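Please, structure for the following, as tokens.
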Amino acid sequence: MRRGEGEDGGPRRRVLCIILGYTGAALVPLLAGQRGLPAAAAAAAGPSSSCLACHSGIEDMHPKKRLRCEECHGGNPAAEEKERAHVVPRRPLPNDERIVPPGWDPDVIRFRNPMDLRVAKDTCGVCHPDEVDRVPLSLHGTTSGHLGDGLYENGVVRERHPRVAIFGVTDPRFDEATAPPGAVRSLQRIPPFRSSSRRNDIATHFSDVPRKNCMNCHLWSRGRAVRGRLGMDGDYRGDGCAACHVRYEDDGISRSEDPTVSRVEAGHPAKHAMQRVPDTATCTRCHYGDASIGLTFRGLAQPVPGMPQSPDAAGLSRKRLNGVFHLEDPAVNPPDVHHARGMQCADCHTGSDTMGDGHLYTRMEDAVEIGCETCHGSPAARATGLTERGRPMRGLEVLPEGVRLVSRSDGRVRRVKQARDVVDPNHPDFNPRAALAMTEEHAGLRCYACHTGWNPNFFGFHFDRNEGFTQLDVVEGTRTEGRVNTQEKVFATFKQLYLGRDSHGAVAPYMVGFSTMATVHAADGTLILDQEMPVTAAGLSGMTMIHHQPHATTPRARDCVECHRAPSALGMGSVNFRLGREILLLAGDRGIQPAGFDRRNPGNTKLLGQLGTEAVRAIDLRCDDLQGRALTAFAALADGSLVSVDARNPLDLRVLGTLPGAAPAARAVLVADDLVYVADGRRGVVVIDASFPARMREVAVLPLEGGEARGLHLDGFTLWIAAGPAGLVAADVGDPAAPAVLSRLHLGDPELPDDARSVSVLFQHSRPSPAGHGAPRLPARALAAVANGVRGFALVDVTRPEAPRLLAPPGVFGGGLDAALGTVFEIGSEGGGIPSRERDLAFLLTPQALVLLDVSDTAGGPPPEPRVFGVRGGREVRLLRAYNAPFLQTYALVAAAAGLTLVDVTRPSAPAAAGNVAQPGTAALAIEEFPLDRMVDSRGRPLKDVSHEGARYLDLEELRRVLEAPVRGR
């Protein structure tokens, strides 16, 4: 007779695991038996011999204090039959992602999982009352902060920190007089989606997102990896206290000695055993979404859409987790130094961080009590052994001979280097490079502002809602109209650095959070919204960023110039991450012709009309700050006038104003918010105030001695000028009414005149070294590509605008007409032989071709062989990025004598024809686009909101002070 069977062979005593059930063992929800016994009756029933008759070999869950099965699980331990020993559910327990309410059949919940927050007060709370009281109030229990960010950024609520949670909760001991900063009395249950008449409003549709896609990351749920669901490697976990204190294997398969547990069904804990201190693998069962700190800490990153998904693909992880093979390349995304040296999350984060301190908070920075200084001290003083809340840091020992940390996870003792000693010339830990940076002037920086090795960012994060389908509302437990997908990413970058002030006023890295653009389809398939950008209650763009601790710390800090000479790092925008919209403006001999760009089939791009004017020599476009739609075009005409054109309706372009004689020899026009810069040949650069486009006025002229203003590029407060025979000129335009030349650089033989025609600038941040954490980072630089007419092209290091430095010529022949710089994330080969990588490219236009040159190597090595695409009669090249979910496509648009040529450069190694628009005499081009990484305008005014109170981008005065600060060691 087999174990667990009666004499008749029936499954009389095949008792499914009572103990393992609470964390995902082999417990089937529909069980038969008695309800739970009162505590006294359970004690009188004696030891759990009937349980162990079937579950022999089961591990001791709570070895510190031996407990009987029924003390945790209830049930009837005296019964010998499964039907009487187990608890009878009043209704089926759903085996999907839905979250049952707190009062749902407590006996069944307890039988399944005594650590569930719905019953923990009567189980775990008997011995651990304080912890059980605190956990439901913690951010792990309420998920308040995440919910609030998305609701505010997408305009659903007016307040930055709405008091919402997965379930309504009140702090019974709240006292406003003694509550810590940021604590609140209560949180309300997140409201359900309600369709409204504002169907063209992104806020209406985003309110459906949290309940369908964002409500599994909290302790009231075990997430997406429910019992029996295969393919969820890395997602399997318990809920309640078990989420942290019971370990799961990646595949969710049990390794228990309990003979009744399935060895093939996913969703079971590794063993029937508690871990007192959670390991990193347990923490990262949840912490791989949003800011992805659980990935970053381990040196992983979410893959870019389209990347080959194979363990054999170069640069990808060998193991599939969370449904994907992650990016894992030490030259791109190395692990945090703490992880690399064997530390676990719990070695730093305290119990108050993870389990709460008994108060309700609406943002993470108020709930976390540790920082780098907790262990490493500051340049002025060593660590005290106390957290920011004044509580002792467990395991941190401050001794006369130094500071050491006793690991909570493995007991290992580690010496903790002190910041004070690093700047002390008399100490063995002294680092002269660090001493230059760790000064009083930098006291307002978070340590990780400089020591963050890399930053994962997905600009333009996209959600799609389709009203033709239904989806489970996991809170209500019903399927409702609208299927929501939030897994779409647009621009991917792992090398950019962005900084701003956090909610406590310190400078910290900024990353993309819940900023999402929306596409919504009606039930009949028609578009309600098409890549619509969110707007907050403050009237600013919600396509923003938020301060984060990326958990990508490296011992080698970044270069000083990555902050002090990089306007893009401070939110002033770059040539990258500019999402193309629908309208192009072609200009030339026939005036201005609007064209409708078909992003799904660029070959179908069509002219929409024409605004008859004098021949146009140059044009640029101002787009609105909220959606990136065309507002006003500014065109320099052959008769020397500058005209402003209302471009809001491309089918009906209208001249708003004319400034006669403003640009008699115009070669380029550049729009910067309410200013227009005109490269006007020998006259120099003309600055136009276009605050009122119908009444433009000239405010300044910057003459160029011995040169001709031909091409322009604005980078922060520096205007780079392709100055014809005078080469490359840098001008300070911080005060547009008084521009001043900073430097001049000849691009070749000083005995021969240059022929500089255009310039483009891209800041290239430092990269981690493949040699490891201790090796120097690859250098950072600002790179300029200059089209130098008959002399070809020049590459210039413009990191220091006051002292640009000519680099080796790129080796492109045929004459230089125009140049553009930009970054393309090129997807590797399906077989994995060619890795996916972020490539910085120069797009160089010659009279015969468009040349693509890889300029990614900041260490100064020779660039790879350029790629050439034949285009005759080209005059100007612009980059356009279009998003067709789930892929981002990049096009080089060439304005040529015969019209517009579109070249697909999504794969720079194989540029391909994408279409043509015939329009003879086309000389210039402007693109309707939305700059996703531009947070402030040229005057320092915020363009995009920040969802955390007190957090902000730098203001004008701060921007000038940072960008003009002396850079030591350079």
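Residues 1-47 have pLDDT under 50 and may be disordered. DSSP finds 22 helices and 47 strands in the chain.
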